[in-house]
Amino acid sequence: MGQYTKTYTVVLSLCALLLTAALITFPQDAVGASVKGLTMWWTIVFPSLLPFFILSEIMVAIGIVTFFSVLFEPFMRPLFKVPGSGGVVWSMSMASGFPAGARMTTQLRKQNAITQAEAERLVAFTNASNPLFIFGAVAVGFFHDAHLGYLLAAAHYGGNLFVGLAMRFHRRSEAATAPFRWPSLRNAFRTLHEHRLKHHKPIGALLGEAVRSSVQTLLLIGGFIILFSVLNQLLSSLSIAALFQDVVAIIFSILHLPAELSGSFVGGFFEITLGAQLASETTAPIVFQAVIVSFVLAFSGLSVHAQVASIIAETDIRYAPFFRARCLHGLFSAVLALLLFPYLYTAPSMQTSGEVGETSQAVTFFGELLNGMHTFGPVITLGGLALYCVCYASDKVFTSK
Hey, what's the signal peptide range on this chain (predicted)? Predict the structure, then answer.
């Protein structure tokens, strides 16, 4: 054990020295990547996640999650071996995107609303990209192909469903069983009221805590986005990424996949946005582009892994089950994309004028929303940070008194 610890220390120190040397050698590349990551966080990530994070804090605090837990219990327990509150976490994670699922799961674990095994199952399959990113950024923004969004969304969320079904066997000996009972609104309201009485707080205090906690988490997420953006650029500058691409290209050739997609796979291994963008710039057949992008979206990239690991580190939830689940999600999503491609994707040249109009109208909302985020996102971010400062200052004033 001591030898392993010393080896780990040496490797970690060498990596830190190498990255420091790379920063000194390629300062312009590092600054450019840092600005790119900051821009993404500033315009998209912060304004899109802040409302969901605040809302999730309030829902957990006042007992709304407990209310829906009673209603969802008869369905979530037998299917996924998690409490009914997992249904709320799952729906919120799909609407807001990662790492919202990990954050809500951590909140429930801190309140002892779920066990360690249930938390590990829940965080494994509530890690999802939101529709805004899939339809707006990837399908319309990168590929300029609205139809592709339906295929990617079906593969992504379908893969998450299969991950949930697979993770029900995680620590199965600790899975609680209960006889099936139809959901009762009366019991749900009674549970909500009991939770509210037990955890009573003034609404002002709830809002202040929700804003402070949400912004702190988003600042942490922003740091990881910038860090991995710089790390990925430095690996490219050092030609280390090219070495990985050569290895992946050999594996792709064995699997009869286009070798030119190896760059998007390696890039997506670190950051999903880069992986999806690189895949859209290749000349590979669209079916293979969809397969690789589906895997990249499901695996989520090491940037998201680091965000989730830092969030769940506040509890006894382990990271290893989450990593295994991401690998499973990538496999499931890639296979689903391949199988569903003939049924859910229609090439633009094969669409009729009516189909194009109908598809564009269905996805226009996400495209317009993404454009709006680029325009008004920084304003929302500034407003959120200002609100955080006000809440933080108010808390300090009242605490000193």
Answer: none
C-alpha–C-alpha distance, residues 154 and 204, integer Å: 40
Residue 14 lies in a domain: no
Distance of CA 361 to the CA centre of its chain: 26
**Do residues 317 and 115 touch, judged by C-beta distance below 8 A?**
no
Residue pLDDT, tens place only, 244-283: 889 999 999 898 889 999 989 998 898 888 888 889 889 9
How far is CA 186 from its chain centroid? Answer: 34
**Residue 216 within a domain:** yes
Task: Give the pLDDT of residue 177.
Answer: 63
Contact 304, 103 (CB under 8 A): no
Give CA–CA dist 385/209, Å, rounded.
14
Residues 6+ apart with CB under 8 A from 101: 89, 90, 92, 93, 122, 123, 126, 127, 128
DSSP helix, strand, coil percent of the chain (3-state; round to 5): 85, 0, 15
Q: What is the distance between the alpha carbons of residues 103 and 18, in angstroms, rounded to a whole number?
A: 32
Q: How many domains does the chain have?
A: 1
Report how far residue 136's alpha carbon sits from residue 364's, in angstroms, rounded to the nearest whole number. Answer: 8
Its pTM stands at: 0.84
Residue whose structure tokens are 């840092």: 34
Task: Return the pLDDT at 267.
Answer: 87
Q: Is residue 22 part of a domain?
A: no
Contact 366, 129 (CB under 8 A): no
* Residue 72 neighbours by CB distance under 10 Å: 23
Give the whole-angstrom CA distance, residue 147 versus residue 135: 9
Instruction: Name the 3-class secondary structure at 178.
Output: coil
Closest by CA to 211, choosing from 371, 382, 81, 58, is 58
DSSP letter for each residue of 273-331: HHHHHHHHTS-S-HHHHHHHHHHHHHH-HHHHHHHHHHHHTTTT--SHHHHHHHHHHHH
Return the higher-pLDDT residue of 177 and 141. 141
Alpha-carbon span 235 to 301, nearest angstrom: 15
Residue range of the domain that includes 69: 27-400
How many other C-beta atoms are found inside a 10 Å radius of the C-beta of residue 84? 21
Distances in whole angstroms, Cα of residue 337 to Cα of each of 270, 285, 349: 21, 13, 20
Q: Decide if 12 is inside a domain.
A: no
